[in-house]
Write a structure and sequence with these properties.
Blueprint: H1 12-27, E1 37-39, H2 43-48, E2 65-67, E3 79-80, E4 87-90, H3 108-114, E5 118-122
Parallel strand pairs: 1-4, 4-5
Antiparallel strand pairs: 2-3
């Protein structure tokens, strides 16, 4: 049980896949049909939910960021929540509630700082 895997984050390849999926979701029109996004309250799943945000967030926007810049030392820009569907983190959506480091998560207060637009009321 390697502690390095505690609440694992996306790898550079994973981020590339998220970026590609974001472009696809927006270009094919699926984005306009999504009313709600449910995610597990694990770091990597909330990073992946960034598919439904948009790049180019600035502090002057009239919305909180979906993910703050460099969340978890990701070296990634902030993701905008402007015109995005609501995202709710639900504890029971986790794959496992086990003892392995990858199955454990950070505190909700830490997540609320890193993912301000995500609703954690069910986590």
């Amino acid at each position: 049980m390697n502690p390095e895997y505690f609440d694992a984050q996306l790898t550079p390849l994973d981020w590339q896949q998220v970026d590609n999926l974001r472009k696809h979701v927006h270009s094919c029109g699926v984005f306009k049909k999504i009313d709600l996004v449910i995610t597990s309250p694990l770091f990597r799943t909330m990073q992946t939910a960034g598919v439904f945000g948009s790049e180019g967030y600035t502090d002057r926007m009239d919305a909180v960021p979906l993910m703050v810049a460099n969340a978890g030392n990701s070296d990634r820009p902030a993701i905008s929540s402007l015109d995005y569907p609501p995202i709710i983190a639900v504890e029971l959506c986790r794959e496992h509630l086990g003892v392995h480091p990858c199955d454990r998560r950070r505190s909700i207060s830490e997540y609320q700082y890193l993912f301000p637009a995500v609703d954690f009321s069910l986590a």
